[in-house]
Design goal:
This protein is α+β, with helices and mostly antiparallel strands. About 35% of the residues lie in helices and about 30% in strands. It is built from three helices and four strands. The chain has helices at about 15-30, 60-65, 70-80, and strands spanning about 1-10, 35-40, 50-55, 85-90. A four-stranded antiparallel sheet has the order 2-3-1-4. The longest helix has 15 residues, at about 15-30. It is globular and about 35 Å long.
């Protein structure tokens, strides 16, 4: 299994807009056959820090995901809503 953890730091005035964009991509990603988990959390001490956890059947399923047009649209929509570039950790699930 292939996993991904992404941390977003959203500008405080754009938190609502960020969640609108994330909601759209979340719904579509969960429909992908290779997606197993696509969940996000809000840091309890900082509502502008969002954590996204993704799990895919394998690397090929993840590669399919990153090619989807709606993910490209999401990235464009959030580009100006963030304080900094997202932090991304990718890897194979260790057993």
């Amino acid at each position: 299994m292939f996993t991904l953890t992404v941390t977003f730091k959203v500008k405080s005035e754009f938190v609502s807009e960020f969640f609108q964009a994330l909601s759209k991509v979340t719904n579509l990603t969960r429909l992908e056959s290779g997606n197993l988990i696509y969940e996000f959390s809000i840091d309890e001490s900082d509502k502008t820090r969002i954590f996204l956890y993704e799990k895919y059947r394998d690397r090929a399923a993840y590669e399919f995901h990153v090619q989807q047009e709606y993910l490209q649209v999401f990235r464009a929509e959030i580009a100006n809503l963030l304080e900094e570039a997202p932090s991304v950790l990718r890897g194979n699930l260790h057993k």
